[in-house]
Amino acid sequence: xxxxxxxxxxxxxxxxxxxxxxxxxxxxxxxxxxxxxxxxxxxxxxxxxxxxxxxxxxxxxxxxxxxxxxxxxxxxxxxxxxxxxxxxxxxxxxxxxxxxxxxxxxxxxxxxxxxxxxxxxxxxxxxxxxxxxxxxxxxxxxxxxxxxxxxxxxxxxxxxxxxxxxxxxxxxxxxxxxxxxxxxxxxxxxxxxxxxxxxxxxxxxxxxxxxxxxxxxxxxxxxxxxxxxxxxxxxxxxxxxxxxxxxxxxxxxxxxxxxxxxxxxxxxxxxxxxxxxxxxxxxxxxxxxxxxxxxxxx
Length: 298
Ligand code: GDP
Hints:
By secondary structure, this protein is of the alpha/beta class. It has twelve helices and eight strands. The radius of gyration is 21 Å and the shape is elongated. Bound molecules: guanosine-5'-diphosphate (GDP). This is Signal recognition particle protein.
């Protein structure tokens, strides 16, 4: 994950280690290199600017210049600031907000190909491991293969799937599914909504109507980490019409440079809750900012 960024940052730290002592000039030099590494990893420029500003303010302070192990202190400052942009320390550990009156309703949204249907299955699997009785809802009615895909995933997971192949009304399907979930005493309902190639008005209107009809506890926006800043921009646009409660970043196992992961929280203001790390159902993790920061620097 983020191999190039990892190499570059470690290169900066190695150079610092060689210095007899740190002063303003070699810290400035190191920060310049960190800045380049982040920009090359496709991190949003405003995020980079704030990040460098914060690291600089701390690094130029007495703490580093007077420290006996200045390089270690510098690395710790970078680590802490990475944790900050990834979501901060007081993080809700990627937990789903479960409604005290079941079923908890989770709506999944995202562009076609982002990994929405796969992530719906993965999330169902994760919740089933926590002994939750889950219903998957095939709301992506414009892509018939999505219904088949969700039903296959349901069989694989042993999870009930609600679908209505004859219906062209995604909002009604969501409502009917919720009724079915209540009758069958489900704890959690995960609705896979339709995705398009681009965010368009029609898509947003349908998702907003579905939201109003089922009043979800969580709206999770699924974004493909491989698409870098595009993923961030789409998440931002999506949020302007519909407040997501969290983000799932998929395809983190690919050669994504890190830009999406490092920018999406700061740009959208929404927490990154889960990451997808492969095509298989188990390849899915709750997101922890400090673990991710350690992976980036590790
Ligand atoms: P949707 O159109 O948003 O529902 O996207 P799909 O769930 O059908 O996923 C699109 C493609 O991405 C499929 O081939 C998935 O197997 C793949 N995919 C989804 N999540 C991941 C992931 O975390 N890692 C990898 N490598 N592939 C993924």
